[in-house]
TrEMBL record:
Residues 1-23 form the signal peptide. Keywords: Signal. The keyword Signal applies. It comes from the Bacteria. This is DUF1311 domain-containing protein.
């Protein structure tokens, strides 16, 4: 009985130490550069708000079309996932632009996620 209790405690301790090690690696590990536009996107570099709105709406419309398409919804490729992310962030970016505020984070993500969507469609 004592032996199985010790084994159980040892196994639990190893599990906790192992889990803590993995969690720390996830938090402190290098982040994946899944976007070519990590940093400043072309959208952020656009100064004219009217042109920027047009570009963001174009990306958002393309993303919405892919997110609604049964072809991509049922595909084994993750285009639908990236389309869903792109439409959300492009929508947020457009919302900010309607108040003439250029939110760099949402613009970067809008372009990045749209680029990823297109990459998985080809």
């Amino acid at each position: 009985m004592k032996r199985s209790a010790r084994l159980l405690v040892s196994a639990a301790a190893l599990l906790l130490v192992g889990s803590a090690g993995r969690a720390a690696d996830i938090i402190e590990g290098p982040t994946a550069d899944y976007c070519r536009t990590v940093g400043t996107s072309n959208l952020v570099l656009t100064d004219n708000i009217a042109d920027l709105k047009t570009q963001v709406v174009k990306l958002m419309d393309e993303s919405v079309a892919v997110a609604k398409s049964p072809e991509w919804i049922h595909s084994s490729r993750p285009a639908f996932v990236w389309a869903s992310e792109a439409k959300a962030y492009c929508g947020m970016a457009y919302g900010y632009l309607k108040t003439n505020y250029k939110d760099e984070d949402t613009l970067n993500k809008c372009e990045c996620f749209h680029d990823r969507m297109v990459e998985y469609m080809n």
